[in-house]
Specification:
The complex is a heterodimer of chains A (326) and B (255). With 326 residues, chain A is mostly helical. Helix content of chain A is 76%, strand content 0%. Chain A has a single domain, classed as ABC transporter involved in vitamin B12 uptake, BtuC (Orthogonal Bundle). Chain A is built from 14 helices and no strands. In chain A, helix 3 packs parallel to helix 8, helix 4 runs parallel beside helix 6 and helix 5 packs antiparallel against helix 11. Classes of the chains: A mainly alpha (326), B alpha/beta (255). The interface between A and B is medium-sized, with 25 and 35 residues.
Chain lengths: 326, 255
């Protein structure tokens, strides 16, 4: 499989561009591909131009960055906890974000305030779990997992409480946020910055991640500074997740399943896995978001629901296809 | 040449003393067997010597340099350890896994070179895994996974091999073949091999020296023929042991 990797990556890149094209063309007003191109180049019909550049492009770009961040955070959490079932939310980052976001939605806030509160909640949860898991000096992933899962359960109870006592008027917004929603999203420049810097910073350490996947002791025996690496992975994955939930709410599925999809095709080597997962995660979320705002337009579906609708059959197909007698 | 020297080394685990104020020198070119009952601290002892666990007191020198300050990567270039267990939560091919042994020799910005591939393939050859190179590790049997662990260590090409029950799970053919290979590495390439074993007869056959761990901090180290006696083994395992001498070898048998 690895021999076909360049082809695979090129295919993913083409797919990503195609998804962006669809996202820009589709919507309440369909815009022909030629006009989309004209709008991107700055001429053509001014109305279509504004629709493409000011409404659809920022949203698609936020969706792409968010999907890529979630997929990368999923890869990192799975290595950190050496558990294929881990996802970006398993340690409670999204729970903290949700509590922050729901609180300000209850108070009537919209847009950037919700994103900001989500980001703050995510960081607070990250630091809380980190300091609790640190215990008496040791810092083992098993302890981190238990601490994170328990904190996540605590956030879950708080979320239910907020939904129960929240005013009817904001209930719908709150539910949408929980299922993933890009309508709160504002400029995604920060997300792209985190994504590109993060990916560039991670790639040189990919071989270390490969070793860490075989266990801490084995990794240390082969010369990997495991403890600093563990802490760095946790913080980077949490930052990625915090930025992602700030833009799209807690979108499930992408962070759990995209890493597995890529592993099925390209193997587990993180030097190949990380770039491919970022591309596939971004693409999947752009398509899901486009579908969520077009399928029953003018109403919108929560994007998290659509990611699962697209992702579940895709994943099962890949899984079935790859089950060859080795 | 003293490859690994212990200076007043004390190792303890869970309130138990593995060794106390131990000063000893392990020479290059020797194949040394580490024997002891379950739970006396063989693994702990090996992990400490590998620099993967801090000793309670004392220090360890690798080629005259303090292991505590040598750094993980520099240590891994010279010293390798075969763990008792291998974890593979994610799919990976046999060759990929074996190549991971090259990690300490590959620069931060580099990928595995052609030479690294050749070294890994050679290691797979020695362990009889070459035909399985493309197979997923999850499709291996217990013994095959063990041989892959050994191949990964061989690909690391350290000067000091610390082996935690290397022949555990191996069939008789591979036990003989791989122990002979490690002995050869010691003899011909001047490597130091220290391995924990449960089979006294394998130790008698392949080791120049043995190290008996009694579990109360007491320890016996010396040439195999001098240390492996019925009296010492009876004390080590707490059962009666008979020695059977044939024309060209000697065997130990319980009872």
């Amino acid at each position: 499989m690895p021999r076909h990797y360049p082809t695979f990556l090129a295919l993913l890149a083409l797919l990503a561009i195609a998804a962006m094209g669809i996202a820009l063309a589709a919507g309440s007003v369909a815009i022909a591909p030629r006009e989309v191109l004209a709008a991107l180049l700055g001429d053509g019909d001014p109305l279509a131009g504004r629709l493409v550049l000011e409404a659809r492009l920022p949203r698609a770009s936020a969706a792409f960055a968010t999907g890529a961040l979630l997929a990368l955070a999923g890869c990192l959490m799975q290595v950190l906890l050496r558990n294929p079932l881990a996802d970006p939310y398993v340690l409670g980052v999204s729970g903290g974000a949700a509590v922050g976001a729901l609180l300000v939605i209850m108070l009537g806030a919209t847009g950037i305030a919700v994103g900001g509160a989500a980001f703050g909640g995510a960081l607070a949860s990250t630091l809380l779990v980190f300091s609790l898991a640190h215990g008496r000096g040791d810092w083992a992933p098993a302890r981190l997992l238990l601490t994170g899962v328990v904190i996540a359960a605590g956030w879950g109870a708080l979320i239910s409480l907020l939904l129960a006592i929240g005013p009817d008027a904001s209930l719908r917004s709150m539910l949408f946020w929980l299922m993933g929603d890009f309508s709160f999203s504002s400029g995604s420049r920060g997300a792209w910055l985190v994504l590109l810097l993060g990916l560039a910073g991670l790639l040189p350490f990919s071989r270390h991640l490969n070793l860490l996947a075989h266990g801490e002791l084995q990794a240390r025996a082969l010369g990997v500074p495991v403890q600093p690496l563990n802490i760095a992975i946790y913080l980077v994955a949490s930052l990625f997740t915090a930025v992602a939930v700030m833009h799209g709410g807690s979108i499930g599925f992408v962070g759990l399943v995209v890493p597995h999809m890529v592993r099925l095709v390209a193997g587990s080597d993180h030097r190949r896995l990380l770039p491919a997962a970022a591309l596939l995660g971004g693409t999947l979320l752009v398509l899901a978001d486009t579908a969520s705002r077009t399928v029953i337009a003018p109403r919108q579906l929560p994007v998290g629901v659509v990611t699962a609708f697209i992702g579940v059959p895709l994943f099962l197909w890949l899984l079935n296809r790859s089950r060859s007698p080795a | 040449m003293s490859r690994l020297s212990l200076h007043e080394l004390s190792v303890r685990i869970a309130g138990k003393t593995v060794c106390e104020q131990l000063t000893m020198s392990l020479q290059a070119g020797r194949c040394i067997g580490l024997l002891g009952a379950n739970g006396v601290g063989k693994t702990t002892f090996l992990l400490t010597l590998a620099g993967l666990r801090a000793p309670a007191a004392g220090r360890i020198e690798l080629d005259g340099r303090d292991l505590a300050t040598l750094g993980r990567r520099r240590t891994a270039q010279r010293l390798g350890m075969l763990m008792q267990q291998h974890a593979d939560p994610f799919p990976a091919s046999v060759l990929e896994t074996c190549l991971s042994g090259r990690h300490p020799h590959i620069g931060f910005w580099q990928w595995e070179s052609q030479q690294d591939h050749e070294i890994a393939l050679q290691a797979l050859q020695v362990t009889g895994m070459q035909t399985l190179a493309e197979r997923d590790v999850h499709a291996l049997s217990g013994g095959e996974r063990r041989r892959l662990g050994i191949a990964t260590l061989l690909a690391q090409q350290p000067d000091v091999f610390l082996l935690d029950e290397p022949v555990d799970q191996l069939d008789l053919y591979h036990q003989m073949r791989l122990l002979a290979h490690f002995r050869e590495l010691a003899e011909r390439e001047n490597k130091l091999v220290l391995m924990s074993l449960h089979d006294v007869n394998m130790a008698a056959r392949f080791c120049d020296e043995v190290l008996l761990l009694f579990g109360n901090g007491e320890l016996l180290h010396g040439p195999t023929y001098r240390v492996l006696t019925t009296a010492n083994l009876e004390r080590l395992y707490g059962i009666p042991v008979r020695m059977i001498v044939t024309e060209d070898a000697l065997f130990f048998q319980p009872g």
